[in-house]
Structures are given as structure tokens and as C-alpha cells.
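Entry 14. Structure prediction run on the chain below.
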Amino acid sequence: MSGAKWAPAIRQEGIRPAAVITGASSGIGAEFARQIAAAGMGLVLVARRRERLEQLGESLARAYGVPVEVEVHDLAEREPLEALARNLAARSDVELLVNNAGFGLVGRFVNGDPDRQLRQLDLHVVASARLVRAVLPQMVSRGRGAIVQVSSLAGMFPRLSSPTYGPSKTFLNAFSYALEGEIAGSGVCLQALCPGFTSTEFHSTPEFAGLDVHTQIPAFLWLSAEQVVRESLAGLAEGRSTVIPGSRYRWLALAGKSSLLQSLAVRWRAARRRRRGTRPAT
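Output returned:
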């Protein structure tokens, strides 16, 4: 589906537009910050790690001469989420929202940490929806703006992911698609960004300790954060509501729509785990 088109703007009605980016301290979020700052927009960077955020913000302000604000919040917690949402709703300059904050889990749902599982859903689903609700009214009233939900290719194939990660990304895809129908003609651009394996710190957390995914996954399947963000921004400029970076992943998504292929992939994955004597993980 093709919808409204959007490109970074330095000035709108005498105000410098701002881009709000969650999970901005590293990876795809930090790369969005770099490319948006290079286009001349102001930034509101949101993450849990103050030192990393401040270092990034200072470097981008120096390099591109743009205003940068830092908001330190754990968006999996309701009170910090509400504080940020109220702040954003009270502004009139939010031109772009990138819902990027998230994390992965390893292990089975049936015996995994329920608190971590619920935190993941709170962060991917609740926080994303709440922040969209905070900024969307001002975008619709202006007739301009963009929202990027950083989803995942796993959202298209939830049975091949963990029972919380993949389905939470499926929600982001469906939410964006449904919301696009609701605000059609408003001038606001909505995008579900669905990358495959991307070279970031995502797999370097304690959750993935002992799993050397970079040796398990072929090198040709890894994308750079720079490519993912570049293709996302190009998709906004073209009005594309779903962006799958990398031609190899676009072909994979097309082929994977076959229910037979999905069934074979699930069976292969289960058989591989049985041979290794391991339990299902993300």
C-alpha cells in the first residue's frame, strides 16, 4: 500500500521540526539520529543510558549544528512512559516519531522469566502505541508528519521467533496498517520497518550470552544499520507503508508467504533443535 509521502524538513511555519527517536543510544536508533541530524532536523533522543545518549547528542549537535534534547526513560515502565507521552503531546514541533526501543529474549515461554516477557510486550506494544497516540493528533492537525515503527521480519513469520518477540512485532505491523486506513488523506506517513539480521548491539546483551549468532548466521544475511535507516527514509519519501531492507529479505518475505514453506521451516527448526538436544529459543 502506498500512502502519504514524507521527507525531513528544516523549517515548518517558523519552527524547526523535531524527530523523536526511542532506543536511540545505539544501533538502528543511533543511526536514525545521525541521518536525521544530517538532514538538519532537531532531535529528541530517548533511551535508558544517559551517558551514551549525551555523548551521541553532543557529537551530533557539534557535527550538524542541530538542537538535541535527551530524555532518559525506561519505556517498559508505565510512569516514565506516561511522563514522556505527556511531554510529547504538549509539543507542536514533533515531525517524526521513530519507535525503535526494544530487546530480544532467548528461551521458552513456558519456563521463561514472566517479568521479562511482560516487559518486552510493554515496551514493544504498549509503549509504541502510547507514543503514537501522543504525537499523532498534532501531526494530523498540521497535515504532515511521519511515524516509523521499527518492527522486524520476524513479525511476518511469528512461528519462527519466540512467542513474545515475533508476535509483538506482528502487532506493530498490523497496528500501522490499520492506523493508516484510519488516517488516510491526513498527510501523515506511517511505516512498518521490517529488517532482518542487522549488525547492532541487539545480540550482544546478556540475553544472548553463549550464542554466537554472527557465526551461526551467514555473513551475506547481515545488514548494516546505515542501510536499514537509509532504506526506511527512502520508503517514507516514496510513501511506502512497509519497508523490508535488503533485496535478499524482500525475496525471502515473498517466498515465505507460502504456508507450505513456513510449515517446512518450523519443522526444520524443531528437528535441528532436537539433534542438538536443545530447547526452543528465539
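Residues 278-282 have pLDDT under 50 and may be disordered.
Filed with the rest of this week's runs.
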